[in-house]
Amino acid sequence: MQLSTKTLLALSLAHSLSVNAAGSTSTFELSLFYPQPYEYDNSINLSSEVVGFYRSIEVANDLFERKGVNLELKPTHVASVSSWTGTENVQTGRSDMDNGITEVETDVGDMAVGLFQPKGSTIGYGENINSSNYTWYPNVTAKIGLAINRTLGKGGDNSYPFLLSHEVLHSIGAMHDQAAAGRFNDDAKGREDGYARTCDNGYGSLMTPVISTIPFAQMTISGASDCNTTPSANMVGFTNQYAPLAAEFEVGSRNNQTIRLTVTENINDQTFDFVAQRNDTSATEAMTLYIAGGAAYNGQNALAPQSIEFTSGQASSEIIKIDFNTVYGVFDQAHGEINNTYAVVVGQNEVQNKLVDVTAINTLWEPTITPDPETPDPETGIPNPDNGGGDSGGSTSLFSLLMLSCLYLVRRKLNK
After folding, report:
1. What is the pLDDT of residues 309-333, one digit of tens each?
2. Over 329-368, what HEC string results?
3. Neighbour count for residue 385 (Cβ, 10 Å)
4. In whole angstroms, what is the distance from residue 404 CA to residue 410 CA?
5. 361 and 261 Cβ atoms separated by less than 8 Å
6. pLDDT higher for 128 or 77?
7. Looking at residues 148-169, what average pLDDT do you find?
8. CA–CA distances in Å: residue 284 to residues 14, 307, 309, 348, 395
9. How big is the CA angle at 237 (ends 213 and 94), to the nearest 5 degrees?
């Protein structure tokens, strides 16, 4: 599409004046697509992937708010793609979304995320964008490829959950290093400070090429108060300038985050009860409930997706009851990880705004704590030789030792 001179001048002016002077927060709506064969692949747990998508959004929003980035991510759509075979990797799949047969199908939201196999060690591909794109292609949905089994993390204190936010910022022009950031400014109208650097804590920032090496709690962004000793790298300022423009990759907002999910701990029935509510009741619809938590490396960290059926005119679903022991299994796998256990419902035209933390609703489950065999017994100071805690302990208590000493002294007196 050729733009008129008047339109080009207007866009150029908006480009040059897009500093978010008022400090208002921009919103990116994100859609999620995955190959339909993933629904039948036992090696892929869609509950873990969908909950991971939502969790990555929440992790990103928390980081942005804490570091002074005026940007909020929102989910807007989750769907399968029948033409994908499941063999696509993050590069070939993203390419198909960008200019292949699924380009139009995946033009949903400001940014569309596709779930694919990794390509070697590459686990994410963002949109390749330069400064001039904001003038010539201002309203094009950015396409992102993410590898499966990453968004909930791989266990331990790694930063895989920040993979989505890393690729989102790539898709507005952020780069890994200073040389690449200079190439972003292809029209001499843009910034050149949108890249990573080593921060005050000694770790790299969000746009570091391999973010999984950064401890989760240490993640920050160049230009934030804890990462601004090198003024030439300023991802906070870069994002706050370009986010208002990228928020119009899809003109207008879908504002369809309208599903409400209520979760109740039913002690009488020993179940967690799930009820979904929708806004649009005009037709029959099947929505899907996803429950997962912990880390993606463990196949027991999620339950199978569960269908929730609505009839025409029905606003609230029937109660979906899942017994405690089933959910407790996910609690056990999530215990000690950076994620709790969450639930989310998505439909064809409506989605839930954010996850429901099922762990926070629980009052009965308690984690099973196995003593470390090297941990000293609190009474004797002697390392526990086994992991047991039963009645036949393998050590003598301090109280028992005192009693034996007293008995010995009494016997000495009697024998004199």
Report:
1. 999 999 999 999 999 999 999 999 9
2. HHHHHHCCCCCCEEEEEECCCCEECCCEEHHHHCCCCCCC
3. 11
4. 10
5. no
6. 77
7. 93
8. 44, 13, 8, 11, 65
9. 55
